[in-house]
Amino acid sequence: MNQSPISTLRTDNPADVMNHLRGLGAVPDGGIELAGTALLLAALDQPGITLDQYESHLRRLSDDVRERFAALVEAGAGDTPETKIAALKHIICDQYGYDGDRDHYDDLQNASLIRTIDRRRGMPITLAILCIEAGRRIGWSVQGLNVPGHFVCRMDDGATRVIFDPFNGCKILQAPDLRQLVKQTLGPNAELSADYYNPADNRTILVRLQNNIKLRRIEAEDYEGALNAVEAMRAFDPNEVRLLLDAGVLYARTGRLNDAVSVLEAYIPRAPNPQDRQDAEMLLFQVRDILN
Question: CA-CA distance, 243 to 140, in Å (whole number)?
């Protein structure tokens, strides 16, 4: 496994953390340490925090899951994805007490891996990152699935794939369960798409994590905070064109009009569809009108 960024990087200067994230922009996706980078993103909101204790906790989780799995197999359980998921559930959910925060789901703390570890409560994606990290350190193939409205995991073993939900006690999900999740988010006529079964890469998971922060800060009219979340995403995922539009909107909201013009001009020729291009052109016209 690659050296963890938290083993050498100081977090007391957010600019140093951002520089490290920018360095990840040129790294192949497989070279990005998922949990370590999630901790660094969380540290942007808690500068100066010591991350060694969180790295130690991640190692301990994985070691305990490995031991639990070995005990289950020794007791007669098969070496199957279901047994691996049972080991994750026993350690992460039962022994350490991690669970989904249903009472305060939209609390920003739930989108911080640091605060999720502190509180043993989180949202689907932060709890999924813990399961992915614990499993991958053992050598298991654990993937994240970008299901609309609810992030889940998939345990692979050859041709066998089992989907489970870290937010709800690592419950194993069947197709009807996934269909219900999709309908809750997209409406009663929505159906499963093959895309929902495709694993999300590390950058996609981290962007979704940060998007939760961005959206909650926009809802709270904390546009500077939302912009900081977008700039962090642009640092480690510079090729995600949609972030240019997000940045343009938030630069305009925070009065950085020249920056808004710059990113909107970069976005418009790369807009993924005519409606997005038209929206960006309208915003660019309004910003230029203010500047003139």
Answer: 32
